[in-house]
Specification:
Layout: E1 4-5, H1 8-28, E2 34-40, H2 44-60, E3 63-69, H3 75-87, E4 93-96, H4 106-111, H5 124-131, H6 140-151, E5 160-164, H7 171-180, E6 184-188, H8 195-199, E7 204-207, E8 225-228, E9 232-233, E10 239-240, H9 245-249, E11 254-255, H10 262-282
Parallel strand pairs: 1-11, 2-3, 2-4, 5-6, 5-7, 7-8, 8-11
Antiparallel strand pairs: 9-10
Helix pairs in contact: 1-10, 2-10, 6-7, 6-10
Bound molecules: 5,10-Methenyltetrahydrofolate (GUE) and magnesium ion.
Length: 283
Amino acid sequence: MTAELISGKELAARKRDEMKNQTEELKENGVTPGLAVILVGEDPASRSYVRGKQRACGETGIHSELYELPAETTEEELLNKVEELNDADHIDGILVQLPLPDHISEEAVIDNIRPDKDVDGFHPINVGKMMIGQQCFLPCTPAGIVEMVKSKEIEIEGRHVVVIGRSNIVGKPVGQLFLNENATVTYCHSRTRDMESIARQADILIVAVGKEEMVGKEYIKPGAVVIDVGVNRNNEGNLTGDVKFEEVKQVASYLTPVPGGVGPMTITMLLHNTIQSAFRRRQ
Ligand SMILES: Nc1nc(=O)c2c([nH]1)NC[C@@H]1CN(c3ccc(C(=O)N[C@@H](CCC(=O)O)C(=O)O)cc3)C=[N+]21
Ligand SMILES: [Mg+2]
């Protein structure tokens, strides 16, 4: 078997076309959706992701503002900036790029973003609402993954989803979203015993670990759907996933590439959340 690739890039392009119509509708009513991105420090990978987000905003008709703060910024200064953006009517979404420098508490920053502008879906109010199935901003990477699976009309209900990774921004919420879709969900992590045999039970395997080429064909049930969330930079500076692409492609039914897979859909869901926020707050 050779897996069919799920191109996040193509799906993202289709979704962004639809979203352009939504921003036009808003603009006819005098509303331009606005996203503010705050980047603290000079990490080159973070800079490159932020550039991608801004480019995507431009293409979709979303106004974006970038605040580049020096690495020495204090927590209080950052919280003041968040407060200012919380109060700015033309800003519908606030994204503080993670990770933050060690002297700043990510928890304190996230807690102080207005939940109705938290387009990352990281605020505890939004996390709680997601957990009990209430309307909220869904976290972008997990929501993008569900969209990718649905785009191929892959059945989710009743199927076994195994998530490798338990971060607050990908692993935990992606399992919750698949549970909300009536899947049976298992989490694996660094302390899991015999991870390969658990992963081999997955109908849909989601790998969100951050370790280059960790998952080979021994983790895959023939015909499984494999979603690679890894964004690792190798020694040559290329972006690579957590999955051994060439060998897993020989056993899986569907596989997401890196780059061109989950990443572009993460950005697309951010645009989606920002537009939804503008509709909710200003229409
Ligand atoms: N508050 C916050 N929200 C985030 O959503 C967030 C964050 N912090 N910190 C960092 C991670 C990482 N992330 C990516 C988004 C898009 C691509 C993406 O578009 N990747 C392209 C390639 C980009 C390239 O080549 O550099 C692709 O996979 O095809 C990657 C990574 C969002 N993150
Ligand atoms: Mg920190």
